[in-house]
Design goal:
The chain has 296 residues and is mainly alpha-helical. It contains eleven helices and no strands.
Length: 296
């Protein structure tokens, strides 16, 4: 890659980094404004309205802005392959495995950090979900959130990073997707799921499959719990379904690893191009600061 081309590629990646910073800043400002309105008694609808407005308020202005910011970054063409319910089911089972393994590792890291800091371990994500009304979990966490996150991380980031190859694009977008969650409990499984969602995006060539897959994963991971009775056999079967599906998913993943299809991009992969620029550095620092603040 020539020196002139190297500078241009770094500018492209810097814009992608700044787009994530912009999204996070809009989220922070909007959330602070909503909190101020709630404390002042001017926000109707209680916690449910607060949670939904948090998601709607920062994604609606952020997505058009970041796509405008990245409008000049070339997007390489993608091969489109037909939708298959069987393939969706296969990826769903693999996704359950990735979520289960990632959650175990993430919760262990989360508890370790709390112990090192001599604090009582707290699962902030589970606490937040338990306080949400079921309508917010369904509309916000299982529909609006997955849709907007796929547009941002697969449609914007992975789609443009694919100029360095689909496999590096999947890794970088998944890493940023994990960091974006700003907590160790979610980082590991968000990273692993990000790899799967990026592969689904590149394999099918459209956002439909990763959006649907993401929605199904969130429904199974959070919404189904609200539908289970407090006692009886159903909660036990649901708890057992995770390790069983995880084993099946790992088997499917191992058996299908040689059949994976990753296309090359027009530019050679380069860690220095992607990460050694002001925009990406600012995004990573921003996410690390957000994560650190969760433990203070």
């Amino acid at each position: 890659m020539q020196q002139t081309g190297l500078r241009q590629e770094r500018k492209y990646c810097a814009r992608l980094g700044w787009s994530l910073v912009l999204t996070s800043v809009i989220m922070l400002v909007w959330q602070l404004w909503l909190t101020w309105q709630a404390l002042a008694g001017r926000l109707l609808g209680g916690m449910g309205a607060y949670m939904l407005l948090t998601l709607v308020g920062y994604y609606l202005p952020a997505l058009p802005l970041v796509f405008w910011l990245c409008r000049k970054i070339p997007v390489p063409p993608r091969t489109q392959r037909p939708f298959s319910v069987r393939r969706l089911g296969r990826w769903f089972v693999i996704g359950i495995a990735l979520m289960w393994v990632g959650s175990l590792v993430g919760n262990w890291l989360n508890d370790l950090v709390y112990r090192v800091a001599m604090l009582e371990p707290v699962d902030l994500v589970r606490e937040a979900i338990s306080e949400m009304p079921i309508s917010v979990v369904l509309l916000g966490g299982c529909i609006l959130g997955p849709l907007c996150e796929e547009i941002l991380f697969r449609g914007l980031l992975a789609g443009r990073l694919a100029r360095y190859g689909q496999k590096p694009a999947a890794f970088v977008s998944a890493l940023l997707f994990g960091l974006y969650h700003a907590n160790l409990s979610q980082f590991c499984y968000a990273f692993l799921l990000g790899l799967l969602l990026a592969y689904a995006y590149f394999y099918t060539g459209t956002l439909k499959m990763p959006v649907l897959l993401h929605i199904l994963m969130n429904l199974y991971g959070s919404f189904v719990v609200f539908l289970l009775p407090e006692g009886g056999l159903m909660p036990i079967l649901y708890a057992l379904s995770w390790p069983i599906l995880a084993i099946a998913g790992i088997v499917l993943l191992v058996r299908g690893r040689k059949a994976q299809i990753w296309e090359h991009g027009p530019c050679a992969p380069s860690i220095r191009v992607v990460f050694v620029n002001v925009g990406m550095t600012a995004a990573i620092v921003f996410f690390f600061v957000e994560t650190a603040l969760m433990y203070i």
